[in-house]
Amino acid sequence: MIEIIKPQWPAPASVSACCTTRLGGVSEVPFDSFNLALHVGDDENRVRQNRQQLRTRLQLPSEPGWINQTHGIRAVVLEQESDREADAAVTRQAGLVAVVMTADCLPILICNRAGTEVAAVHAGWRGLQSGVIQSALSAMQSAPDQLMVWIGPGITQPCFEVGDEVRAAFLDSVTAAAEYFSEHGPGHWLCDLAGLAERVLQQQGVDRVFRDPHCSYRDQRLFYSYRRSAATGRMASLIWIT
């Protein structure tokens, strides 16, 4: 039986959302067991079995709109665009499932208060610093003050060490970014990626932000972590209008 995490947020009844864990699938070590990514070296048949189980278990209205993530900032509207090279997906069509895959990067799910528009965003530090959140919001029709956001399980600050170049990049692009970095030796910093994402959202006018407390790096039982092991699977975070 697969295990999922549901956002703790006041989304309207017409919006369904969840994040998978690594539990309950058929993939073998080191992708054990509910890997949903085809690009990580796992056996393709096992991944497709996992994807079918996902659809059946969640009673999804359609096959998720899988995108080819590039750590960039492009956002696609699923019902309008066939090019799926992107790091954010938006839909206003009931029955289409927006999805992103992660293994330390942040999955960010967005919906409007009316329950008529949703988005899924893949935000690693590169995409976050470059503007993937801004790109996703620009692809949405809803005003920022009509949106709510759930930041799902990702790597947390005590486990996410970066160099001077990462901190400098954020200092150049995000107001007050310095408070999300804690010095961890010369040239090394612990980065609060979820805090930076929330700051970016607030700067864009989104003030209803909810954060999941799990750490993908620390909780090896529940989550894949690329930083913990480069050969690993991916979780999926999904959102759709029923």
Compact description:
The chain is 21% helix and 24% strand. With 242 residues, it is α+β, with helices and mostly antiparallel strands. The longest helix has 15 residues, at 44-58.
Helix content: 10-25%
The largest sheet, given as strand count, sense and whether it forms a barrel, is:
6 strands, mixed
Number of domains: 1
Number of strands: 13
Helix vs. strand class: alpha+beta
Order of helices and strands: EEHEEEEEHHEEHEEHEE
Q: Please name the CATH topology.
A: CNF1/YfiH-like putative cysteine hydrolases
Uncertain residue ranges: none
Q: How many angstroms does the end-to-end distance come to?
A: 23 Å
Radius of gyration: 17 Å
Query: Helix tally?
Result: 5
CATH class: Alpha Beta
The CATH architecture category equals 4-Layer Sandwich
Shape from CA axes?
A: globular
Mean pLDDT: 97
Task: Give the name of the CATH superfamily.
Answer: CNF1/YfiH-like putative cysteine hydrolases
**Approximate strand percentage:** 15-25%
Instruction: Determine the oligomeric state from the structure.
Output: single chain
